[in-house]
Design a protein that fits this description.
There is one protein chain. This protein has 289 residues and is of the alpha/beta class. It has three domains: 54 residues; 131 residues, NAD(P)-binding Rossmann-like Domain (Rossmann fold); 78 residues, no CATH class. Helix content is 40%, strand content 17%. It contains eight helices and eleven strands. It has a seven-stranded parallel beta sheet, sandwiched between helices. A two-stranded antiparallel sheet has the order 1-2. The radius of gyration is 24 Å and the shape is globular.
């Protein structure tokens, strides 16, 4: 029987438990500092490291488990269907979505967990209510999925929680899924859903090696991230630092494809032409100045 590997959710501790352990960690650290005993300091350090590791594992909520190939989705559409996961409409990504949607060689569907930026509302990054003054949802096919996070936010790991991705992928039947990294729970759910259904996934993230990182932290990060990176069908790299990170994770360079950030030149050309036109209309002739 053919077996493919999937990432299945393994919830070990609740968030409240993690917070409680974090408080106990602080008490242990204060006790070790007060006693100034090498043994106490060592025990406190080991306990803190183990709690951090276990807490991080519980945050990821994933372990590698086999899934039967019988769950694989086989798409019979004449055009390849690309699904893109992203937390919310981002102004510099929307032009790319429109360009991809106009390509007749494939079908595109963008799956959002929030419409922040496309509709008026509070933006934590800007610290105020805002809405982009350009169309954010037109020109490409998109869907808003139900985000059941307790405190919805596109800026935090826990802020996007879409547990229905497996069912949605099964209905949507994409041939490939593009996921922008693993920094949000929504993205990890996307990787889990793709693997569970045998759908190849692509990663286009901004990860790079962190300087001055401790050996333990580096080892933990490598153990957690490497399976996600090596499991991708392709890695869309944004630069040399990004490629170096994927090499560090043990990824095959034959799966690297340059995917640099771009600029919507047509938009800025039109904006400049409109600005120059306004300046021409409001300028005065030399004889009347």
């Amino acid at each position: 029987m053919h077996v493919v590997w999937s990432l299945s959710l393994r919830r070990s501790w609740r968030a409240a438990d993690i917070e409680g352990i974090g408080g106990f960690q602080q008490k242990i650290a204060k006790f070790a500092k007060r006693e100034r005993s090498p043994l106490c300091c060592l025990c406190g350090l080991l306990f803190k490291s183990s709690c951090s590791l276990y807490g991080f594992l519980s945050v990821l909520q994933y372990s590698i488990t086999p899934a039967l190939h019988g769950d694989t989705v086989n798409c019979n559409e004449p055009r390849p269907h690309l699904a893109i996961l992203t937390t919310h409409p981002i102004q510099y990504q929307v032009p790319l979505f429109r360009e991809l949607a106009q390509d007749p060689r494939h079908r595109l569907t963008v799956l959002f967990a929030s419409l922040q930026g496309a509709v008026s509302g509070r933006d934590p990054g800007f610290g105020r209510d805002m809405q982009w003054d350009i169309p954010m949802l037109g020109g490409y096919e998109s869907e808003l999925l139900k985000n059941v996070a307790r405190n919805p936010s596109v800026s935090t790991f826990w802020g996007t929680n879409v547990p229905t991705l497996v069912a949605r992928f099964r209905d949507l039947r994409p041939d490939v899924v593009l996921i922008p990294g693993w920094g949000r729970r929504y993205y990890l759910q996307g990787i889990r859903a793709a693997r569970a259904l045998g759908i190849p996934y692509l990663i286009r993230g901004e990860a790079r090696l962190t300087p001055n990182q401790t050996r333990i932290r580096s080892l933990v990060k490598r153990c957690l991230v490497s399976p996600l990176v090596r499991g991708a069908a392709a890695l869309l790299t944004i630069g040399e630092a990004n490629r170096k990170f994927y090499r560090w994770c043990g990824a095959d360079e034959s799966r690297f494809f340059d995917s640099l950030y771009g600029v919507d030149n047509a938009f800025f050309a039109e904006a400049r032409a409109a600005r120059d036109g306004r300046h021409t209309q409001t300028s005065f002739a030399p004889s009347t100045a």
